[in-house]
User: What shape does this take?
Amino acid sequence: MNEEQFGILGLLGVDKEVTMERFMQNEDLYLRCLKKFLADDNYRKYKEAYANRNVKDAFEALHSLKGVTGNLGLDNMYDIIRPMVEILRTGSLDIDAESRDKLDEYYEEAVNIINKL
Assistant: This one.
């Protein structure tokens, strides 16, 4: 990956130094893992479970997505997901619309940017 690509990933909250440390400075490995994010279906599972008012499945999917975004350094999504997971953990679906909309926005932005890498 080049500096321009990492600059673009910065729009998603990626801190190059922190993320590359997590990936042992292996940029190719990071890029392969980042591309696999596109096939991860936890976002879809969360949306479906939330729409069906299924707290357990919404929690499991969003908790998994939190881990994926945290490992990939997608901090914008990770930071919005973290409090959402805690709400679901209590058995509540009382996540404010602003947070849900922000997650949708960040997810779409991530997909668009990763597809261009």
Observations:
- The first helix runs from residue 3 to 9.
